[in-house]
Amino acid sequence: MSDATRADLALPDVTDRTTDQTAQTDRSGRPPRPSAAAKPVRWAAEALAAVPDAVRPHLDHSAQSLWRVDRMIEDLRREGPSPTAVAQTLRGFGSYAGEVIVRQTGGEWWGSAGDHWVRTPDGRLWEPLDEARRCFGGHGSLRLLCRDAMRARR
Fold first, then answer.
1. Is the pTM of this model over 0.85?
2. Which of 75, 81, 118, 131 is the most exposed place for a label (fewest CB within 10 A)?
3. What is the chain's pLDDT, residue by residue, as a tens digit (154 residues)?
């Protein structure tokens, strides 16, 4: 059996076709986002839709806006709900923070087995969803995570 035949049998679901992504763009003229970004971007949008109208304009995907998100998580923690009761909210806030890091650093979302990370251009991986959970526990800060990720690109 030839090596090519062995490879075909060993990896029947892997394609050898490639796509020139530099030629593809979306409606806005930007290249397509990695598929790993689909869920976190949706979760972030859902979290933004759920915040009070007075706060929403301040969540402009800037690094400074994460100060407000940290405060919202702190206020949520003071109310005393269980972590499972606020899991989707924290996932949304973590996704928003990850999207801020992506936009500020030129990074990209990575995902595997249901976990999502942000990979910055320097190759480092950041876990904004876990950081939101740590923030709820009183041991983290999305603002500081973003600051560290932005500092790493320099």
1. no
2. 75
3. 454 444 344 333 333 333 334 445 555 555 556 677 889 999 999 999 999 899 889 999 999 999 999 999 999 999 999 999 999 999 999 999 999 999 999 999 999 888 999 999 999 999 999 999 999 999 999 999 999 999 865 5
